[in-house]
Input
Amino acid sequence: MTINTLAKGGSVFIILIVAMQDPDMGMKMRNQRLLITVIPMVKGVEFLLWFLTEALHVGDMLVRYGYIYPLKEPRSYTRWPASELDYAIYLAKKNIRKQGERWNMKGYSLLHKRINHTWDFVVMQAREQLRASKQRRKADRIVLECQEQAYWLINRPPVRSLSSLLCVHLCFRPFCLQIETSKRALGRNRVKSSICLESFTKYSEQYQNHDPIMQGCLPSNPWISDDTAHWTMNSEMVPVPTRLRVERWSFSFMELLNDVMGRKEFMTYLEKEFSAENLCFWQACEDIRHGESSKIIEKVEEVYKNFLAPGAARWVNIDSKTMDKTLEGIKHPHRFVMDDAQMHIYFLMKKDSYPRYLKSELYKNMLAKAIVPQETKKSVFPFMRRQRHASPSPAQAASQTPPEGGRAKGAGQAGTNSAAGSNA
Amino acid sequence: MRPKYMRSPLIPEMATQEVQLNETLAHLKTESETLKSKLEEERAKLHDVELHQVAEKVEGLGQFVMKTRRTLKGHGNKVLCMDWCKDKRRIVSSSQDGKVIVWDAFTTNKEHAVTMPCTWVMACAYAPSGCAVACGGLDNKCSVYPLSLDKNENLAAKKKSVAMHTNYLSACSFTNSDMQILTSSGDGTCALWDVESGQLLQSFHGHAADVLCLDLAPSETGNTFVSGGCDKKANVWDMRSGQCIQSFETHESDINSVRYYPSGDAFASGSDDATCRLYDLRADREVAIYSKESIIFGVSSVDFSLSGRLLFGGYNDYTINVWDVLKGTRVSILFGHENRVSTLRVSPDGTAFCTGSWDHTLRVRAICSLI
Output
């Protein structure tokens, strides 16, 4: 071979030929005897192999430097350097399709530990991409899968760099979180034990009469006597409530609001005082907080129109600072946008309207009318069992009337088993 | 002759990097420990009296006679979890063989039955409206089944997959409505999901090991919940921001169950270390331990009676211990199950409580007389 140096202006072929003869990277040269002459030669097969390897390498360079790229560019085909998040998504997809290469399971679990906090995002992305790919034509899908696989074979993060960064996350993170929590906890206001513990004794004392396990219940515990009268008398809407129930409304504002009947009574009282819009506003805010995500925007609009807009039909009285903050937040409505305003109104009702309600004629009358059920005398033959009647299932009640916004309404229907369960 | 692109890159600075990393790690460790002991000091400063001292003036409780009033048989394997419906008589329970059954406990009739595609259904919950149940376990998911009384309808067909974790689901609970579910998982996180869209609304990171239980706070603002895990910690979380507000680490083993005191100012926890403990949220510390030397088996589940005076604990030695919350003494011990008690809940109106056990049955108990 006479060409072994790069002359000036050498063509591509000359470059190749010179490279072929490189002692490290080139082909394996041998000496062949031809009669008395020794000629350096190379085996045909080796010649082919060398070319193929270098061709692959060139091809890879072309892809890596972006001369060749897929036409429809899915997000995960980012250019070098690829993010580990994308690699995690790729492995998650393979895992889901159960084609996970055994040898990289370790890398997968290392990655998992490391970016644990975004793992749900990774899995969701993987599922999304798989779902999207199913909609492609089969030919396209296969081509894209091959490309992806080839891409990651080249670009997968090498295990060594995984381990050094792994140290940072795996080891540091729990300590960082712990330090953050401790710092926050140190800043808390604490209450003296004597005050806190006193409240437990007070609470237990206040509720003792209402606790069926401690004090029994009137007329009788349904589980003992098989008589559901106790439940019938205490169902959501009854013409006359029991005395214990009405008493409980005076324990705390929350007790009053949690009882459907109590809330209705309170609304009647507020209407007399011309401040019913407060309770309506509070209820509307609760609906936003606990309702379907898809309806949040329209519900916030409704609330703004009815309660917050200047000149609204049922305008609620909120201090200007909270009002400004809420109006600002309404521009980008989310589940908790009404929280501050709702709290303000809640405490307004609690401090003002609620105590007055408890002193009002309406409440006092209710308390006076309330019934105290007679205790059922224990039957002479304790072994005779009453027939236990079924009650309408809350599920059935809901299927007849479509549920509104997921509010807990069904429980009420189940309690009104007037015909079914109460007679002996 | 290796192709060029398969040679891995050299990282010469690895050695010095590692030394730096180790130093930072040690520094973080010491900072964490110092802060923790400082926190304990602060907490101890305001602790001026013990609960049983305050409770001395409270009347003692008499003897209880609690009888099993209903036995629900129908599960083919260990009962793992149960929940009451708001109508005070219906129950949903789940078991190891993948079956989830909805009972009318009062009549002991089975109303619905669903077979999950996985075994070990460790979590189940009744929706507040009574129209659906949620359950999950080894499938790493929480699924919601709307309940239909149409005999021809296959409940499994309407199933909605809501939550998706990377390890088993240990507990789930609906929040104030049917629209959101709170879950805890063996992957160390809790998460809040939107039922309708299956979207993750908030995730809660902070436990260093599997989270085994959770409970929602009955507070006015309704924004917090507590979780307990295998890292012996009980954490209180803010549902809006995802931050851990308070953390308590006094148990000596996995916390299997947490339950709020009815007023929302405290919560109780039951653990494998055979104790139940009461933590006060305003005092920010543990205020009572319910234990006895003779009790050596772990507690699987706890719940309060309606007034909060009694704490019921289901234990792995097949018994139920009833504790006087204020005085710290054991009031009663109940027998009946033939294998460990795995789940225990007091009914919504406090008239009875139900226990589920590995002996395949559920028992509903009520007080017969108070002497």
Remarks:
- Chain B touches chain A through 119 residues (CB under 8 Å).
